[in-house]
Structures are given as C-alpha cells and as structure tokens.
Design a protein that fits this description.
The protein has 29 helices and 4 strands. It is mainly alpha-helical. Strand 2 and strand 3 form a beta hairpin.
Length: 732
Amino acid sequence: MDKEQFYYDNKIVRNFLYASIAFGVIGMLVGLLVAFLYLFPQLTDGIPWLSYGRLRPLHTNAVIFAFVGNGVFAGSYYSMQRLLKTRMYSDFLSKFNFWGWQLIILGAAITLPLGYTSSKEYAELEWPFDIAIALVWVAYGVNMIGTIIKRRERHIYVAIWFYLATFIAIALLHIFNNLEIPVSFTSLKSYSVYAGVQDALVQWWYGHNAVAFFLTTPILGLMYYFVPKAANRPVYSYRLSIIHFWSLIFIYIWAGPHHLLYSTLPDWAQNLGVAFSVMLIAPSWGGMINGLLTLRGVWDKVRTDAVLKFYVVAITGYGMSTFEGPMLSLKNVNAIAHYTDWIVAHVHVGTLAWNGFIMFGMIYWLIPRLTKTTLFSDKLANFHFWIGTLGVILYTLPMYVAGFTQASMWKQFNPDGTLVYGNFLETVTQIMPMYWMRAIGGTLYFVGILVLVYNIFRTVRQGSPVENELAEFPALTQISPRQLKGEGWHAWLERKPVQFTLLTTLAVAIGGIVQIVPMLVVDSNIPTIAAVKPYSPLELQGRDIYIREGCNNCHSQMIRPFRHEVERYDPTGKQFSKSGEYVYDHPFLWGSKRTGPDLQRLGGKYNDNWHFNHMWDPRSTSPGSIMPGYKWLYDNKKIDNSLITEKLNVMVTLGVPYTQERIKNVLNEMDIQATKIEKSLYNDPDFVKSYENSKKNAAARGEEFVEMKDREIVALISYLQRLGTDVKVKNN
C-alpha cells in the first residue's frame, strides 16, 4: 500500500505552548497579588485598575482562558494531528485561532482592569469580546472537524471525543449565557437579556459547565493522550473510556443549579441539579481510575520521572475535586460551605492540581520533542513538582480551615437568641492567619512555574525546533461489509464523525433544554412582588459603578432561608430573599463568596455619611476591615451620564417599565435625587470642613469645581441605599 507524505504542524503547537507558559506566569502573578491584597488592602490604594474587584476577574480569566486555554489548544493540535495521521485541516484557521485568542486575552488584560465587565463569573468580558470568542471558537471547531474528515485513521480515538464535546458544549454555553444588548455600539457596556433568577440559572448553567467543558473535558482528552504516551502504556480500559465519556457529557450539563441551593431558584431546578451532581461521582471516578490504572507496570518509573509525577497528582486532584463537588451539592453540606472559603479551596484543588499539573507535565513532555532534544534538567523538573505540590497543600488546607471557621462563626447563637458573632468582621479577623498561609502556598506554586520557565528556556536553547515534521501514512481506504462483520456499535460510531457529532450534541444539549426553557417561559417560577419598582436612573448608574468596581466579588445579595442569615442581614424585617425582588436586575448580583457581608437589605441601615466615609476609608467605620478604599469615586470630575438615556431605552427593551416621559426628564430626576444625598452629607461637620476646603483649593488652582452631587460616589450611595427598601416598605 502506497504511503502519503505530509507534515505535522509543530509551529502552531509551539506557539500555543509558549503563550500558555507566558500567561501562566502573568495569571498566577496577578493571583498572588490578589492574595496579598487580603493581607494588605491598602497595597494598591488609590489605583483603580489595581483594585481587588478589578484584578480578581483578571486573575480567573488569565488562568482559565489564557494559561489553561492555550495549553488545551497546544495539546489538542499536537494530539489530533498524530491520532488522525494528518496535518490540521487549515493552516489559516490554526493561525486565526492562535492570534484571535491572544488578541482576546490582550483585550481582557486591558478592559477588565479598566472596569469594563458584565459581572458574570468566568464570563466577565463585554459584548465585543463575546462575539470575538464565538468567531475564534467556531474557527477552532471547523478546523477540528475538517481534520477529522480528512483523517488517515479510521477510528476516532477517545481524546478526540472529548475535544469534540468541548467544542460543542462551550459553543452552546457561551452563546446562550452571553445574550446581551449593548447600550451603544461605541461603548463597552451591555445588559443581559435575562434578569434575576433566570439570569442566575443561565449564568451557573454556564459557570459550572465552563468548569466542566473547558477545565475538565479537554483536560481529560489530554490525559487520554499524554498519560499513555508518557507511560508508554495503552489506556487501561477502552470500555471504561466509552462509559466515562458518554455518561460524563450527559450528566455534567445538568449540575449547574447546585451553585444556587437555598436561593430563590425554584426547588424543582435545585433538586434536579443535586440529583445529577451526585451521579457525577461515577463517571468522574471512572475516568480517574482509567487514568491511574494506565500506569500499571510503570510505577517504578514514577519515582524518577517528573512528568509522570505531575500526571499522578493531577489525576488524583481530579478525583478529589470531583468527589468533593457532588458532596458540596448535597443541601446539608452546601448550607455549610456556600459563600465560604471552602469553595475557594475546592476550586483551587481543581485548578492548581488537576489543570496546572496536567499542563506542566504536558509542557515538560512536549517541548523536548518539538525541539529534538532532551529536557535541560530533570532535577529542576522534579524540584518544580515538589514545590508545586507543597504550594497546593499550603494553599488549599488553610482555605478549608477558613471555610469551616466562617460557617461555624456565622451560625452560632447565644441562649437569648442573639448572634454570638454579630459583627461580620469578627469572622474576618479570625481567619487572617489562614490568608497568610494561602499567600505563602501561592508563592511556592508561583516559584515552581518560574523554575519551569527557566528549564524550558534552557531546553529550547540547546535544541533545534522542527516547525514542520515529516510523516507518512497510507490514505484511508474503503472497507467491505465483510470486514465490518461483528463490529460493535461504538466502533461503528467512531468511524462516523457526523453521527458522532450529532449524538454528542444531543447528549450535551438535552440537560440545558430541560432546565433552562421552563425557567424562561413559565411565569409561575418567578412570583412578582407589587412593591418592587425599577431602579431610579441615578441608582442604575450607581449599580453600574458597583459592577465596574467588582463589588459582587466580595458581597452577596442573597439572604438564604436560614435563621442565622435572616437575623444577621435583616434583623428588623426577618425576611429571606424572594425571587420577585430581582425582576429588574440585569444582570443578577447574587455573588458566590462573602468576604464581606450580604448587602440585600443594606438600604437604610446606615446614613449617607457612613457610606461616604466607608467607601473612602473602610477602616474608619469598620476597624479591621480588609476592604480597599475607592478614592477615585470622589475625584473632582463629573459622573459620565452621556449614555443614561440609551441605558434606560435598553432597559425598556428588556421589559423594565420606564416611561418615555421619565426618560425625557432623566437628567433632572438624577439631579434632584443627587442633591438630596449631597444635602444629607452636610450633617457631618467633618464633611463640611473638608468639602469647603476642597472648593477653596480648586479656586486657588483655577480649576473647575465639581459639586459632590455630580460625582460617582453619590450615585453609588444612591444604589446602596436602595437595596432591599422596596420589600421593607411593603411590610411596614
């Protein structure tokens, strides 16, 4: 049989690997800075683009989409070519995928610190980037499917099953979660088409499955290729691979609601999420067992081979996090863990151990093969493994302790029915030693990746890169029915890419359809509350500032039906949150962690002066607070109201009942409300003294003086003072 010669494209693999390493360093450095901001909240005081609320989404996006994302592209491009025995379908699409993805990452690195965010966790980028991501992702998928079609290998290997499922699922999740209306086509501001409970469900359908189908399924594909390669052993069980794949992609998509337990999400949706989350243990551990048992017979090699060490700990981390996840979905466990640092620990077991170590192992294995040399230093690679492992331990264990401490302190009552720790800050000060240990663990992990950078740099220098690697295989030939006699159904499916893709799409989509559609079309899922009115224009501006500054990264707006939460966050009204409170919230702001207290009933709890002083220097009103100050909100410049009319018109399009008369007089209405807040600030003699002095100083410098009512801080105060007041009014 004649063989066809062709060239593997190693250049695209190399480029993605280098990008993964570079952004890994940047993403983890930002994460380290974020960890130290817990210890030194004034470290970046007065610098808006280095504030915690803006850096935290930058860290998560850089690590997930830049570090892991580039690594996934590198590993899939390398393995697909060799498994399918052909060059990628299109060099142009490969380059478009690479440069498009890097430009998106660069855009994120610029816009997120500037405060351009949708606030949705793992989907913070604004609408132009959402469109760009969709285009680049489609290019990746077309390139993958095209390569499958022109393959020289009859059967599609298990790794490619996972890559294909990743492409399909992420495409669906990204498109439906990011349906939004831009305020204008010249601004980086949009509003989600969903509101409140519906928005929360769609977001966590996306958020959980971004973990499932961006941080899990493609990594499993890499595991199924690179672990057997590194061990020089076949995958332990082909049958287990089949069970693992189909059960995982079918079940995973249903599990999103377990992020919303005890919330205002209808019970049927919560319970559905719990049931499927518990079922996830079986396929997840099936995959872990398949990966670990692939190493049968080579455990002696694990003692010396750093690559295998990384893979063993990575697969173990996968097993740990996928056992913990279903456990956290149980309502009695979730009642303890949710909103605490336990969740932070859980997430980082997956990202640091599972994702990070798979990437490190793959990089150490691939780079020498792409440069036709040996790794510069096995000792340094082993050092990286041990310091990285120690970093994971020192990061996660203190966070577990912090989570348990938070949960127990929040829930304790005195015999007279009052909270033992009524001041939220008592919890914060108690866990500060844990935050110190986390910072140390993160530092060790970061040192490890710096060691990798040096080791890879020296390896590349001593090698000679081969951008196009010659290969030859016979073309794929037709086979007779006689040859197919006794063929199993899955073997048949593996050589039918169209049918495989369609079945995968069905398996992925069905869970989303069952969960999402009823929530969008059945009105009874969200009972209305007559007293709840839309935000005033000034409050809407304040809400947008709240989103811009990332306040939802630390504060929730969801009082769960627990005695301790109602007592702490609504001691007078004694109410937990209702779904009808959020009908005008585009987007929802329930949050996922309480570094600070819940704010759902904050309105009227403190006077305007308290908020004014608190936002300038949180420790002046709350000794021991680790919240940063927001001094730029007080700058002598006018709030930008140029888009307020457009904002209200978008809200009208989304069903918010603003009248045209109100929209016409919007600036006058905002001025009246802002003036009222400014007058209330005069109740504080210190404010009067400081304010009058700033007027004199501005006049002396010949500067235009902007009245306080026209500054951003007043808009933010208006929003904070509105929170929960509609419900309070109704009950009085």
